[in-house]
Design goal:
This protein is mostly helical. 81% of the residues lie in helices and 0% in strands. The two termini are 17 Å apart.
Length: 302
């Protein structure tokens, strides 16, 4: 049975890649809809309806298999802390979408894995090393390439996007620590429930505009796309190793560039393209490096 398991995992890699590509399409569409809506509604209202739709689709996909036992946890405080941080991070990226081109916000968000490496070193006591440190420094230079040019609103938007990347990096590190005891389904359902409650509480402060029929439908469709993206992303990581499916997540940037051009007429600047290549390249290098470390660790145990 031990000898068959690696082949079984290998056979599931193409399906994992398919799920990851589906996740990138869903996330890009959700992000584009959020950018469209932030011109009409407050960030809290956009995110509230998005999480309601996401909660519906995730509950539909997860609860029939798990029932209410999915909410059994001994780490409620950790779930609360993680999702409060994630609520702030999501608020920042939606605000950034209203201030800068779609592809620029998405590209800066791809620096989150670099910050996750940093937070994993601080909180989980993982060794950074020269390679990880170099990837972090080079990736941050790519962020500066994306954020530096343009008007003040672009720079303010870039700062919000960067703050989101930093906070999302901390959330990623927290999830890595929690995954030792919490299933992907438990993490996902607590995320959707708690984020819905947080954004509902923020509505009176941020403001509410009663959406018309078409706007209400689009607000909920945004949540459906985000929920499908979350589910497909989780399935991809369950089916195949992160090193096999992770690189395909960067296709989100391709769809963001395309949607930005088709919907808003955004033509990517040379600095945006160069910075995106640097950020994505740094992330891919980290994936390759981590895969090598895992292989070396397995050989050492044999």
């Amino acid at each position: 049975m031990v000898a068959v398991a690696p082949q079984q995992r290998h056979d599931r890699v193409p399906l994992g890649i398919a799920f990851m590509l589906a996740a990138t399409v869903a996330f890009a569409l959700s992000t584009a809809i959020s950018k469209w809506q932030i011109a009409r509604f407050s960030f809290a209202e956009v995110l509230f309806f998005r999480t309601v739709g996401s909660l519906f689709i995730c509950a539909l996909l997860i609860l029939p298999r798990t029932g209410l036992r999915v909410f059994h946890t001994r780490r409620l405080g950790d779930h609360l802390g993680r999702n409060l941080t994630q609520a702030v991070a999501q608020s920042l990226i939606v605000i950034a979408l209203g201030l800068m081109p779609l592809a620029g916000a998405v590209a800066i968000n791809f620096s989150a894995p670099l910050f996750a490496t940093l937070f994993a070193a601080l909180w989980l006591k993982e060794r950074v090393g020269a390679a990880r440190g170099a990837a972090l420094a080079v990736g941050f230079c790519g962020v500066l390439l994306i954020a530096a040019p343009g008007a003040d609103s672009f720079r303010l938007g870039a700062l919000c996007a960067l703050a989101n990347a930093v906070m999302f990096g901390s959330v990623t590190a927290a999830v890595r620590g929690m995954s030792a005891t919490e299933s992907a389904e438990t993490l996902t359902m607590y995320q959707m429930v708690l984020l819905t409650l947080v954004f509902a509480a923020a509505l009176p402060v941020a403001g509410v505009v009663a959406p018309a029929g078409s706007d209400l439908a689009l607000l909920l469709v945004n949540g459906l796309f985000n929920g499908l993206g979350q589910y497909a992303w989780t399935r991809a990581l369950a089916l195949a190793p992160p090193a096999a499916v992770g690189p395909f997540y960067y296709f989100t940037l391709v769809w963001a560039l395309l949607l930005g051009f088709l919907v808003w007429g955004d033509v990517p600047s040379p600095s945006l393209l160069a910075g995106s290549i640097v950020v994505v390249g740094s992330g891919l290098f980290l994936l390759w490096h981590e895969r090598g470390r895992q292989r070396a660790a397995r050989r050492g145990r044999e």
